[in-house]
Amino acid sequence: MTRWTPDPTFYPSPRDAAGAPAEQLAYVAAFDRSAQKPDAIAVVDTDAGSDSYGRVVGWTDLPHTGDELHHFGWNACSSALCPTAPHPHVERRYLIVPGLRSSRIYVIDTKDDPRAPRIVKEIPAEELAAKADYSRPHTIHCGSDGIYVSALGNGRDGGGPGGIAVLDHTTFDVRGQWEAERGDQSLAYDFWWHLTRDVLVTSEWGTPDMIEDGINPELLLGRRYGHRIHFWDLAKRTLVQSVDLGDQYQMTLELRPAHEPSKEYGFVGVVVSVEDLSASIWMWHRDGGEFQVTKVIDIPAEPAATDDLPPALQPFGAVPPLVTDIDLSVDDKFLYVSCWGTGELKQYDVSDPFHPVEVGSVRLGGIVGRVPHPSFPDEPLAGGPQMVEVSRDGKRVYVTNSLYGSWDDQFYPDGVGAWLAKIDVGGSGGLTLDPRFFPHGDEFRGLRVHQTRLQGGDASSDSYCFPSA
Amino acid sequence: MTWGQIAALAGLGAFHGLNPAMGWLFAVARAMQERSRAVLVKSLPPIALGHLASVAIVAAVVSATSSVVAANIVGIVGGVVLVGFGLWRLLSERHFRWAGMRLSSAQLAGWSFLMSSAHGAGLMLLPVLATTPVVSGEHSGHAMPGAASGALEGIAAAGVHTLAMFAAMAACAFVVYEFVGVNILRRAWFNMDRVWAGVMVGAGALTIALSA
Predict the structure, then answer these.
(1) So where does this one cross the membrane (chain B) (predicted)?
(2) Does A156 map to a domain?
(3) Would the CB atoms of A86 and B25 count as touching at under 8 Å?
């Protein structure tokens, strides 16, 4: 049922959204690597005034096993205010939750009891395959004309092309494949857009058969993982331009366009360079008619003793930073960069997107460092800051530590564990771990934790159609 | 047309113009994007034109038909269609879908045409077009013979309607762009779709009642 006035979590502009109240709850994707127990959505209390602050306060167990929950998103967001197809009286209440391994998509209703969301629909893998010829659904974004879902592979055999499927806003039925003309694009991973510019951007990881059994050293050293990003016409659904970063830059993953609708730039993280194990951040921007993509941040590998390294890294004598997620604050001021290998979250001031300045850093876990949380100094941590989510006001940052089941096992072979840390952001930058907020270990029932979504929206959930000023 | 009809047409036009979904919000967004009042001014005529086309088609068909068929039959059939469409709009949660935002003036007119048509804007004029007004003689459309003059009368009605729509839309766009800002939408954007659908059902019922 629709509302009489717009959903209060929808904001016309990024500046309006940055004034949103603090989130009371966070939803965290949790999965069982052994595929014996069901995956779940864990609900975490983020209300600093609450007795159960920083604790897991609710669970929604899924009915199946082996889904491997990963990323997820909302049914509707601030794009509902966009003037071409406005529908601001729908509610932001459903989480659209794909199983990255099962290709099943759940629709979970958070309205009636936000601490115990209820599964209201399952889209079987067969429907996604039959109607869109896709599998391994990944990123969810709420578009103005439907719910967009990226997928890593085709619906048949674990190969490409991966791409984007569109779900109906209301029924959640799979409407079909998004692309009208895809050129030579085959690898897929993340996507987002410049809504007011009719531009959609996609990145490249690998097809299911390149990733599901773990990172494949032959493919990596053969430079076969994705190293391009693609720019599409959002209205015509056609590929307009592909930019190759160079085949040494393996795995272009998260895409973070500026939230400000009048801007036309964004950032993409590259996991690893096969030349020196460094990671990098690149910025795309419109230069005349075409997009240019330039490297703006280089993060070098850190030397390490062979004995401290897992077998996969011993030949190299160094720890790669492995930038696996990045996130841009709603005001487009700070870029957060997860170095999952070295166990570090870096904060850059990107007010000048061409010249990022590092202004903050927190170390937790890491392949060699195993840095503990200050509140639990006797517990060395595995994994590193990985999925990063930023509150709408930019004051709080949440990080979880699992990357992807089979890849966790290679880089953290003695177990990756499970933890969710919260970091407070200083006014002009600077990061401080919140000592009161660290659900970890058994609190997550033996499941690994991946993406976090904040109640009411967060820095990677909403897009806006009206400029701030 | 009688003064009563003109007032009704203009009132419905203002109602359509006030609805952010019918175009003024798009004009504001385009102007904000380009930081240009000129863009606001240039965006409004194509939107009005698209609305006019959508409404005029329905109006011409209804008026032409009622010139050659007994008016009460047009009223009853049209009223049933209107009630049905209104109920469907009321109960269905599907919304108009459109992906692109960077449109030429012609595309903007096309967008407005589709938006108005999908919302059944022209149908809402049915009570005014299909019912015989209670007036003392003079020339209502039925004084002129034939379907062609009926259609012309329908188009004139659509014109009156669209003038009012344009005025309301321009006023909203100007006030929001210059003074209020779009954040007002968060509180003030009343669910027009529901009101709209309710008006349709009411208008359809009224048409049937007046025709029967």
Answers:
(1) 6-27, 39-62, 68-88, 108-135, 155-180
(2) yes
(3) yes
pTM of the model: 0.95
Q: State yes or no: pLDDT of B142 exceeds 70.
A: no
Contact B186 A262 (CB under 8 A): no
Domain count, chain B: 1
Q: How many domains does chain A have?
A: 1
- Domain that includes residue A261, residue range: 14-454
* Chain B residues closer than 8 Å to A13 by CB: 182-183
Give the ipTM.
0.93
Residues spanned by the domain of B139: 3-69+96-186
Asked if the model's pLDDT at residue A350 lies above 70, the reply is yes
Least confident of A127-131, A185-189, A415-419, B63-67: B63-67
Please check whether residue B136 lies inside any domain of the structure.
yes
Share of chain A above pLDDT 90, in %: 98
> Is residue A311 assigned to a domain?
yes
Chain A residues closer than 8 Å to B28 by CB: 83, 466
**Paired residues of A299 in beta bridges:** A279
Distance from CA of A458 to the nearest CA of B (A): 18
Q: What is the CATH number of the domain that holds A70?
A: 2.130.10.10
Structure token pair of residue B34: 């380009």
